[in-house]
Amino acid sequence: MNIAQQIADGFSVTGTVLLMTLGLAITFGVMKIINLAHGELIMVGAYTTYVINTQLHLPFVVAVISAFVVTALIGALMEMLVIRRLYGRPMETLLATFGISIVLQQMVRLVFGATNQPIESPISGTLEIGGIVIPYLRLFIIVFALALLGITALILYKTKFGMLVRTVSQNRQMSECLGINTTRIDLLTFAWGAGLTGVAGAVLAPLRNVAPTMGVDYMIDSFMTIVLGGVGSLAGTIAGSFIMGEASQLLTYFGGETGAKIIVFLIVIVLIRFKPEGLIKMESR
């Protein structure tokens, strides 16, 4: 029964990984931007939730919407002021977004201090099925992550905006020749990805105390998931999230948290060695 409990907990971790990876699936997977400020955008979303929910005492849904708006605006500013001048220059983009991550961390420290801030869980209680106990908050995260994934896939593959995003990401020069405003598409796409990242921070905030450095672990796991599943593939993002979630939970049960992290890293390294394009390769024309 303990193994069944760990597998069930692994599904909840999978939902967590999927949620924190969706925004990066847009900015890194689709736009090919190595955004080292991804974790800090999650952190900004969490602090937005702290202000709206804990300080202003507004409903949690308002905090989630506010987190999307705030991080989307920050993403738009990042794209307009920095990233727009660095397309096609991955090393410069990496360094620039790393600098932005440090700036965001220090700004949060100046405003909120360096101490951790708790956020009350919006959903309490547990569900017990056959001796397996699952917190309602974890179930909410799984359902919310799947719903957000469905909305993202719908926008990306069933709307005109999504078609333009995929067109620009595959061939920017041809898109410009066809009269597509690539500058506007880049801005909206990066803001969209940043907004999704902020929503992840809002929903994940009740799981742990909010702190200026909370985004570091999220960033590492997000990049590992994207690379493992396949850059640019939403199906790959799902597969990578499942492997990362279940492997982390089961290996932690058998070998402890530190051993689990080492083995997960080794699994990712081996898989990338034999499948450098990831588990699910993005088809291109």
TrEMBL record:
Domain of life: Bacteria
InterPro entries: ABC_transp_permease, ABC_UrtB_bac, BCAA_transport_permease
Membrane-related topology note: Multi-pass membrane protein
Keyword Nucleotidyltransferase tagged: no
Protein location: Cell membrane
Segments crossing the lipid bilayer: 12-37, 57-82, 94-112, 132-157, 223-244, 250-272
Swiss-Prot/TrEMBL keywords: Amino-acid transport, Cell membrane, Membrane, Transmembrane, Transmembrane helix, Transport
Main subcellular localisation: membrane
NCBIfam families linked to this entry: urea_trans_UrtB
Family stated for the protein in its record: Belongs to the binding-protein-dependent transport system permease family. LivHM subfamily.
Protein name: Urea ABC transporter permease subunit UrtB
Lineage summary: Bacteria, Bacillati, Bacillota, Bacilli, Bacillales
Gene that this sequence comes from: urtB
